[in-house]
Write a structure and sequence with these properties.
By secondary structure, this protein is an alpha+beta fold. It has a single domain, classed as Nucleoside Triphosphate Pyrophosphohydrolase (Alpha-Beta Complex). About 25% of the residues lie in helices and about 25% in strands. The protein has nine helices and 13 strands. The relative contact order is 0.17. Its cofactor is Mn(2+); Mg(2+). One of its GO terms (molecular function) is coenzyme A diphosphatase activity.
């Protein structure tokens, strides 16, 4: 079955809102705690589903230089997650919010396919992923010609690069199969404030033959990408080799929550992008829905239940973060900081069981 046909799994997916309700916890929270990201899918040269990603500007206060999905916070209480995510995508990479304009000038519209449940960010915001698909009027030869005219524009205050990756590569570790483009894929089940949390990382070469032509012109020029003299000397002594794909099972120091989004691979000396943390978790869950029909029995996608519990017991209530929230933000997997400080014991134990899958 072609990847595009598997979007039927995504269209039929029923979002797991808190308490199995019809409404997401996103709408309960203060405006300052509402965030949304747009997952833009399109079909690549080999018929594979690809996802558009950005590298955050090194000037940003939060997560500078990290790989992310286009998105941001709500401006008003009247904005829906879709409106927030498409507005932010337009501001970050210049892809118009107007489907009529896109159809007239480039021959495609962005279909709003579905949503995933909310995820709790490390800044204690509720992040709602909205999934869209680039839907063309026809897939003839004029498709590439139209896309050549699609001049995306990186907002230097928001992003420093745009690229894409095969969605299926994010399916690991639910399925262990050869990656299409990923060089290294890792997964650890750790704890964040006492709750099981998946720490995933997927690395990709910055230059790859499978990249879409309309994304190949973007070169990362951010300050965080510049190499030091030591890096340059090391690269000169060790010319780049052909990157090899790796699965990582070995233990490593988990006191730090990942690295910058772009760096040089230690073994091959090839420049890579590292998709990790929340973005990696969102894309892994999306891959499960698309390719497995979310057949991992009993596994909870997103953190709607955790977010609701924290809100219900007095956290996530205002624009300013509480002292407890700051402690959770700054905690590591080995710290004693715990969401159990505010969530009653039985409810906390239930959440631990829920997210252990």
């Amino acid at each position: 079955m072609a990847d595009q046909d598997l979007l039927a799994n995504l269209r039929s997916y029923k979002t797991q809102n808190y308490l199995s309700g019809q409404v997401s916890v996103w709408h309960k929270l203060p405006i300052a705690r509402r965030a949304s990201v747009f997952i833009l899918l399109f079909v690549g040269h080999l018929g594979e589903l690809r996802v558009v990603l950005t590298k955050r500007s090194s000037r940003l206060r939060t997560f500078p230089g990290h790989i992310s999905l286009p998105g941001g916070k709500a401006d008003t209480g009247l904005e829906s997650p879709w409106q927030v995510s498409r507005r932010e995508m337009s501001e970050e990479i210049g892809l118009s919010e107007d489907n009529e304009y896109l159809a007239k000038n480039y021959g495609f519209t962005i279909e709003h396919v579905n949503e995933l449940p909310c995820y709790l960010s490390r800044t204690m915001s509720s992040v709602k992923p909205c999934i869209g698909f680039m839907k063309f009027k026809n897939n003839g030869s004029d498709k590439e010609e139209l896309l050549e005219n699609l001049k995306l524009k990186v907002n230097p205050g928001e992003s420093s690069s745009i690229f894409s990756c095969p969605l299926r590569d994010f399916l690991y570790p639910a399925v262990e199969e050869a990656a299409q483009e990923a060089l290294e894929r890792t997964h650890y089940l750790v704890k964040w404030a006492g709750i099981p949390w998946h720490l995933r990382s997927y690395t990709f070469p910055q230059t790859k033959s499978g990249e879409a032509s309309w994304l190949q012109e973007f070169k990362d020029i951010s300050a965080s990408e510049e190499e030091s003299a030591d890096d340059e000397a090391k690269r000169a002594q060790t010319p780049p080799s052909s990157p090899t794909r790796r699965y990582v099972k070995k233990k490593k120091n988990l006191s730090k929550w990942g690295a910058l989004g772009s760096r040089v691979d230690e073994e091959s000396q090839v420049k890579i992008y590292d998709v990790w943390g929340l973005t990696a978790n969102i894309l892994h869950d999306l891959a499960e829905v698309v390719y497995l029909g979310h057949s991992v029995e009993g596994r909870q996608l997103g953190e709607e239940e955790l977010i609701h519990s924290l809100w219900k017991h007095g956290e996530l209530q205002g624009k300013q973060r509480s002292k407890r929230e700051n402690a959770w933000i700054n905690s590591t997997p080995t710290d004693k900081a715990s969401f159990g400080w505010v969530i009653p014991r039985q409810e906390f134990l239930h959440l631990k069981r829920l997210y252990k899958m």
